[in-house]
Amino acid sequence: MPASTVVSVNASSSEAPALPEGVDERKFVVALARGLELLRAFRPGDTLLGNRDFVARTGLPKATVNRLAYTLTVLGYLRFDEAFGKYALDAGVLSLGFGLLAGTDTLELARPHMREFAREVGAAVSLGCRDGLDMIYLETIRSETALTLGLASGSRLSMLTSSMGRAYLAVIGGEEREALLTELALAAGGGASGAALADAARREIAAFAQQGCCFSFRDWHEDVNAVAVPFRDPRDGRWLVFSCSGPASSMGEDVFRERVAPRLRALARRLGHAR
Questions:
Q1: Start and end residues for every CATH 3.30.450.40 domain found in the chain
Q2: d(Cα 104, Cα 233) in Å, to the nearest integer?
């Protein structure tokens, strides 16, 4: 199973989780998957989550959540706040993230290029990768001379509506992409709304062959335009994505198509193997 695959474990304790095709059930540890699902329940801006929050976000039974939360607290991945009766992420999670960031040579190489890029275009430039059904920021550098919107490291973006997510979808295999788009549409609410988001992503993906990048014009946020370019990390071969975002009110579509996109494609070629 690919390292980036995330399995849905939203099943009761008496049910087996729905596993992707090709997963060997004999080797799959359900308890571990559920524990990681609990940690993934935290979103940008979340400080404390209670058992009800975990149940609502993971679909796991309350009894299972209680046991998992206790175990993760004992191991140092969660901290229980007695005053609020809720859990916060603890240092164990930080150490895991630091291991990833510290071990990413490409990130170290990219930082000075990203600073120069942000200064030149007057916007925010980010480096990210896939994490489950989201894209996660490994680094963001903002322009010092312009008002820009840039999320911090560890922030997550919708794979359907963000330029970064669309760029990642554009370079993975066709069958894998369609399966993922179906899953993303369901996660986005299903029905007509989820299908509309998936179709919008498909249109950008289809244009990738000619553009060499993917755009998001007011799709992720009503006042944010963005462009993203994928490239393979020379160190381990995984797909990383550069994105550049700025206020739609001052950086229109033409700015991103004519000025920002060519520079971002050049940056991707400089740092890795761009598609």
A1: 103-274
A2: 9
Which of 243, 203, 238, 208 minimizes the C-alpha distance to 225? 243
Query: 14 pLDDT band (50/70/90 cuts)?
Result: very low
User: CA separation (Å) from 55 to 15, 51, 198, 234?
Assistant: 16, 6, 27, 40
Element (H, E) at 197: helix 191-211
* CATH-assigned architecture of domain 1-91: Orthogonal Bundle (1.10)
**Look-up of token digits 């060519």:** 262
Instruction: Please count the helices (runs of H) and the strands (runs of E) in the chain.
Output: 10, 9
For the domain covering 103-274, report its CATH number. Answer: 3.30.450.40
Asked whether the beta carbons of 186 and 160 are under 8 A apart, the reply is: no
Q: Which of 273, 202, 201 is nearest to 238 (CA)?
A: 273
Token pair for residue 10? 């939203």
Q: Where in the chain is the domain with CATH 1.10.10.10?
A: 1-91
CA nearest to 78, candidates 102, 46, 101, 103:
46
pTM over 0.85: no
Token pair in block for residue 162: 């963000």
> 202 CB contacts (<8 Å, ≥6 apart)?
181
The tens digit of pLDDT for each residue in 215-224 reads 999 988 888 8
Cβ atoms of 101 and 107 within 8 Å: the answer is yes
Cross-strand partners of 224: 247
Local structure of 224: helix, strand or coil = strand
105-121 and 261-271 helices, crossing angle to 10°? 160
